[in-house]
Specification:
The protein has seven helices and six strands, in the order βαβαβαβααβαβα. It is of the alpha/beta class and about 250 residues long.
Length: about 250
């Protein structure tokens, strides 16, 4: 069985270099892996400002370009998208709007709609209210706000989703790509209900495998934190390998 090419779509405000341990873990088992850079957080990409703006559609196109390139360079190898948090949203929307990849791995993905969060979602709703005010004043979302420095259009789309439950793209069908949805135990950002809401929104659940990464499964020094899991990702990579072996049969 030909090993896949894994394209990692990062979380909001997380640069490519952070995923080096994840790439190394895939490469150690003979898989090829690369990161689709997150706009504004990699050296070759201008930081968000009044002059530099982008949207969810732009992020989705970045993934689409990377998929086309991977397929052109190695047409006989399957392509998997591993989307982390915002990257999971972007990866799923890619398959909604473009020719699907061979598999989706979605780690810490969720809908940000405030009603799916505890405490009435008030802390999330507050962030959704701050974004349009700050971006109107500064032309982008400045630090120390969540996701900053953030592009005004992308962050306004995210904030509207927070407030209304309407995603930034039209979801008029369910994505049928084989998908592994990874919940991180006690993830404060992608809480279980918000992950379930995203799956129900966008994915055909007959093609979904769900796995909860619990603290007792983490290696020494590892974590199931929303971001810190990447530093020691072997448990997640092992689960991806098992899922793909079953899926590709």
């Amino acid at each position: 069985m030909t090993s896949p090419v894994v394209l990692v779509s990062p979380a909001m405000a997380v640069p490519s270099w952070y995923y080096r341990p994840l790439l190394e873990a895939f490469e150690s088992v003979g898989w090829e892996a690369a990161v689709v850079p997150r706009r504004g957080f990699d050296d070759a990409s201008p930081v968000a400002s009044r002059a530099h703006d982008w949207s969810y559609a732009d992020e989705i196109q970045d993934v689409a370009d990377a998929v086309v390139k991977a397929r052109a360079e190695e047409p006989d190898r399957p392509v998997l998208l591993l989307g982390h948090s915002l990257g999971g949203q972007v990866s799923t929307f890619h398959d909604l709007l473009n020719e699907p990849v061979d598999g989706l791995v979605l780690v810490g993905v969720s809908t940000p709609h405030f009603r799916t969060y505890p405490y009435g979602g008030l802390p999330v709703l507050a962030m959704g209210g701050i974004v349009p005010l700050a971006t109107r004043a500064f032309g982008y979302l400045p630090k120390p706000a969540f996701g900053a420095p953030g592009a005004r259009t992308l962050m306004r789309e995210w904030a509207r989703w927070v407030r209304t439950g309407r995603p930034p793209v039209r979801v008029d069908r369910k994505v049928e790509t084989p998908s592994l949805v990874v919940k991180l135990q006690a993830d404060a950002y992608a809480v279980s209900a918000a992950t379930d809401a995203f799956v129900d929104l966008a994915l055909d659940t007959t093609h979904v495998t769900r796995w909860t990464y619990t603290r007792d499964q983490a290696p020494d020094g590892g974590s199931t934190d929303h971001v810190q899991w990447v530093k020691r990702p072997q448990a997640v990579v092992d689960r991806v390998l098992t899922w793909w072996a079953d899926t590709a049969r």
